[in-house]
User: Which sequence fits this backbone?
């Protein structure tokens, strides 16, 4: 049986996620063309409302290096959100915090 309390508690994460991303955020994700997990991450971001453009490239290391990511921290995909870079499988909670901090700094 679903109680009002359970319903409200399950809605909190959705409300919090939607409030940080009031408008859809465009993401450009560069990925290794031979990596299967990257498409899973694209689907993950899209599930949370991001507009993702996925670009396969053999120059991922160079793209990551130019973005300021040290070689030892580079993953199989690098995503650009506005002027920010997210590399690897970063959880949505961390991205939401980044976006909230960006919004707060612009206010």
Assistant:
């Amino acid at each position: 049986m679903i109680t009002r309390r359970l319903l409200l508690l399950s809605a909190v994460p959705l409300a919090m996620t939607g409030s940080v991303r009031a408008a859809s955020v465009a993401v450009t994700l560069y990925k290794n063309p031979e990596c299967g997990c990257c498409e899973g991450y694209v689907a993950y971001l899209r599930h949370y409302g991001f507009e993702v453009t996925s670009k396969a490239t053999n120059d991922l290391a160079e793209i990551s290096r130019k973005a300021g990511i040290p070689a030892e921290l580079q993953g199989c995909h690098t995503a650009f959100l506005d002027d920010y870079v997210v590399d690897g499988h970063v959880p949505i909670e961390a991205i939401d915090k980044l976006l909230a901090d960006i919004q707060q700094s612009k206010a």
